[in-house]
Amino acid sequence: MNDSGKSFPVFNTAGQMAIFWRILHLITGTYGNYPAGQLLIALTMVFLHQRGMNPTLSDLCKATGLPKATVSRYVSWQLKEGLAEEVIDPHDRRRRILLQTDKGRTAWRWQAEQMQKLFREVDEWDVPDFREDSGVDPATILATMKRLTAEVRLLEHPYDPGVTES
After folding, report:
1. Is the pLDDT of residue 112 over 50?
2. How many CB atoms lie within 10 A of CB 165?
3. CB 77 within 8 A of CB 84
4. Does domain 13-153 have CATH number 3.20.20.10?
5. How is residue 91 annotated by DSSP?
């Protein structure tokens, strides 16, 4: 069920793969060449914030199972981009907690809207082209993927994601 109480549509395998492929484009466009860990940290922070918890770096390490150096690198990027801020815990001055900023909430809402849009529009795609048994030649499949990639690149982020190719 989604936020409005409606069930999500069920997609065939080709549709699921097309959605996954498009989601990876969205993530890579936001987080650059290392999206998996960055996304895991971002999702964990959002999930915890939505439940009233302001995590520490150690909390994120425990929740994700990632090493502290890795979590620190991803959190540093979010701090640099202004998506989160680090403040001293008022109850324990030795701890630093991570807060989601207005910019971070705006970015997350935008990403959630893009995901909802993706699910609404998937039926309009030429998804059967992705099936192995579709009989469609590879050039047509490549053209479809190129079109979908161009559409993702045209998306305007509500903030400058600061992604640089490395």
Report:
1. yes
2. 5
3. no
4. no
5. T
